[in-house]
Write a structure and sequence with these properties.
heterodimer; A: mainly alpha; four-stranded parallel β-sheet; 29 helices; 8 strands; 58% helix; 5% strand; elongated; B: mainly alpha; 7 helices; 52% helix; globular
């Protein structure tokens, strides 16, 4: 077989990266739990693998999710990934046809133009050569866009990009050089040996007219091989590690593996799959408070570099706004949680003082009502719920009216998982002892933990918005529409956290007019009051809240509705908008029949407008 | 020294010459908002844990400033971290971070030798 010295940098690099990937992925998969391993074994020969292959094609090659974010950014990624993939695949097919064998070494396909002199003879070879030229042009268009993105990232729909470290810079530079070098090397060879196709042949002839192509040819092929080799060697220490690891991630995700409450191989795979694209930076609200170094992309980077500090780890609202935007679909919140659990595991409390007393519950009790700590700070919600329950004639037991443990979720959000388990156990025993099959929760923070971690067999956990909707459907509470324009603020824990978007809106629509907003449901803003962040200062919380309120105020609603006592408390501090929980709104509507509404301390927007109009009419300034 | 006829109980004495301000300084450095506490007791009044058991969050401040680390350590374990104290605080002190820092630094100072 014909060889030449410049194949060695490439071949050694390829060998290195192949061995490295096999070893590291082997280590990661072997550190998975037994359940996860059996999941892989049982799913590997099922349709799940086909779904995974489809997803790899759609996401790793075509980058569908980035296309949705911004078409130019999507095209850049697609041309580089899909173009390079086709370049390798078609190049290999071309080499197989030319050498009439199926076992062509990789360097033969990559440097084929150097080894084959003279123009293509058969039609199929001509077609393939033209195809390769077009593909290279396709990739080069992506590389040009990548150059331009470094100058002006706003064109690509991104306000901010991540900062690069040395490994990234080396890999990025080599990636930028690979394709132009290949194009130049192939064109020069075409200029000498006349073996080019539709694009490389004219370019080669043009270059040959004024350049000493004979002496330039070998150095350029050396440079091309060197750039490839440099890329392979820089890959393990750069963000481009996501290219191979993401494929593994997609397969494991399709087999049903999820991030656990501990650091294992799968969480490592997730961390390495982060491409540091920085799309999560744009959706992060911490930037509204000028906190710019704690976003998911940086935390994942610090996890990889093993230099994550508590200041960064805990400075996050865990609102989850970044998660739907992530093009790789990483479980960003859960990854942060695993780190928080690891960071605080040394000092979990035992709560030995918790003791289950005797319960005194009447046998007719239909439901348990659990208000939650936060709701106790907003007594208007509890009062409204009590009134509604009285109207609907619901027999309930108020579980945390007095002397009750917290639900455990605030501890969990800080990573104190073992401590939270103690509280959960205590409350769970109490709930199961009552034998009541329905529990109504007023606080989304409690709701999420009741739903996910309490393991209450046969007990339905409902947020009060769901339960009120149920009562309304059963005609146990009357419907009375009030002429009011209301914005519904999705609480993070209820919306993105538990997937409840529609029930509160359905309920509200029966009593008031709900105005849709730009950032709602999955893209809803956080109020800034989240308990998940223990590092943020009060003034920074206020900045986040004000930014959120600013957007709501542009719609000029009469009222801001929410389903979370913490959101209510956070927003209500400003007096800018009239903030109410949905239970209060329902209660308000029920009361309009009986008596005059309570004296309002706020003016509704239509009232302000009316007053202004009268002022103008009466010439008052 | 003049005898006033009072007896000093040795166990209750806090000797400020022996005072180790390490923990206090660490916490004030990491969470400066704690400096502005005016000991109003709003946090204690609203406390969920204080409703269940004899737990006084305002007293944590006192214990910390007196350097009574042993008692602080056993008392702070009672906190359920629900966050009500933080919301009622008129000075906007980030109390949950203070509690986590106390827990973390006590546990770390035990294992690390200086």
């Amino acid at each position: 077989m014909e060889t030449t010295p410049f194949i060695w940098p490439f071949t050694i690099g390829l060998l290195f990266i192949s061995c490295f990937l096999v070893i590291i992925i082997g280590i990661w998969i072997s550190s998975l739990s037994h359940i996860d391993k059996s999941r892989i074994i049982h799913s590997i020969f099922t349709y799940k693998s086909i779904l995974a292959i489809k997803e790899v094609f759609m996401e790793s090659l075509l980058h569908r999710k980035i296309f949705r974010k911004n078409p130019v950014l999507g095209y850049m990624h697609m041309s580089l990934a899909f173009g390079w993939f086709l370049l390798i695949a078609v190049g290999h097919i071309e080499a197989c046809i030319h050498y009439k064998t199926l076992s062509v070494p990789a360097y033969k396909a990559i440097f084929m133009r150097y080894f084959v002199s003279g123009p293509a003879l058969t039609l199929s070879e001509k077609m393939l050569a033209a195809c390769m030229d077009m593909l290279l042009l396709f990739v080069l268009s992506g590389v040009l866009l990548a150059y331009y993105k470094r100058i002006n990232s706003r064109v690509f729909g991104m306000k901010k990009t991540t900062q690069l470290k040395l490994g990234d810079r080396i890999a990025l530079t080599s990636l930028w050089l690979i394709f132009p070098l290949r194009f130049l090397a192939e064109s020069l060879t075409a200029g000498i040996h006349n073996n080019g196709s539709i694009i490389s042949q004219p370019t080669g002839q043009l270059l040959a007219s004024f350049l000493p192509v004979q002496s330039l040819e070998t150095p350029l092929w050396w440079a091309y091989s060197g750039a490839l080799s440099l890329f392979f060697f820089a890959l393990p220490v750069s963000r481009y590690m996501h290219i191979p690891v993401e494929v593994i991630l997609i397969f494991l995700r399709n087999y049903g593996i999820k991030v656990q409450k501990r650091i294992d191989g799968y969480s490592r795979i997730q961390v390495y799959s982060c491409s540091r694209c920085g799309i999560c930076l744009d959706s992060c609200q911490m930037t509204h408070a000028a906190i710019k170094d704690t976003q998911s992309v940086y935390v994942l980077k610090h996890i990889r570099n093993k230099n994550l500090t508590d200041e960064k780890l805990f400075n996050c609202l865990l609102c989850g706004r970044c998660q739907p935007d992530c093009p790789v679909g990483l479980e960003l919140n859960n990854l942060r949680m695993t780190q928080r659990i690891e960071s605080t595991k040394e000092y979990n409390s035992s709560y030995k003082y918790l003791k289950n007393g005797k319960l005194n519950i009447s046998p007719q009790t239909e439901v348990i009502y659990f208000a939650g700590c936060m709701t106790h700070l907003t007594p208007a919600i509890i009062k409204s719920i009590k009134e509604i329950f009285a109207v609907a004639d619901v027999k309930y037991w108020f579980m945390d009216e007095d002397k009750t443990a917290c639900c455990g979720r605030p501890l969990m959000q800080i990573g104190q998982y073992e401590a939270a388990k103690k509280l959960i156990k205590h409350n769970r025993e109490q709930i199961l002892a009552t034998g009541i099959k329905k529990i109504i929760v007023s606080c989304p923070i409690c709701y999420k933990v009741f739903k996910e971690d309490y393991a209450l067999p046969g007990v339905a956990v409902l947020h009060h918005s769901e339960y009120l909707l149920e009562l309304m459907a059963d005609k146990r509470i009357p419907i009375k529409k009030m002429p009011m324009r209301v914005i519904y603020h999705d609480p993070c824990e209820l919306g993105r956290g538990s997937g409840i978007y529609h029930q509160p809106r359905l309920l509200l629509n029966e009593y008031v007019d709900v105005v849709p907003t730009k950032n709602e449901k999955e893209a809803a803003y956080c109020c800034g009051g989240s308990l998940s962040n223990i590092k943020i200062q009060m003034d920074e919380r206020n900045q986040i809240r004000n930014k959120t309120l600013e957007e709501y105020i542009t719609y000029q609603p009469d009222m801001l509705a929410t389903a979370c006592p913490l959101c209510k408390k956070t927003f209500a501090k400003t007096n800018k908008l009239n903030v109410h929980d949905i239970a209060e709104i329902v209660c308000m509507a029920l009361n309009t029949n009986k008596e005059r509404p309570k004296k309002e301390t706020y003016l509704y927007f239509h009232e302000v407008k009316h007053l202004e109009e009268t002022k103008i009419k009466m010439n008052i300034h | 020294m003049k005898e006033f006829g009072y007896t000093i109980i040795k166990q209750r004495t806090i000797d400020y010459d022996q005072f180790n301000g390490r923990l206090l300084n660490e916490i004030l450095l990491m969470e400066p908002s704690f400096k502005v506490c005016l000991s109003c007791g709003g946090c204690t009044a609203t406390c969920s844990a204080g409703d269940l058991v004899n737990f006084n969050i305002r007293r944590m401040n006192l214990l910390l400033r007196r350097g009574e680390t042993a008692e602080l350590e056993s008392e702070i374990q009672k906190c359920m971290l629900c966050g009500k104290c933080m919301l009622v605080c008129p000075r906007g002190i980030n109390l949950r971070n203070v509690i986590m820092l106390i827990k973390k630094n006590i546990s770390r100072n035990k294992t690390t030798k200086y």
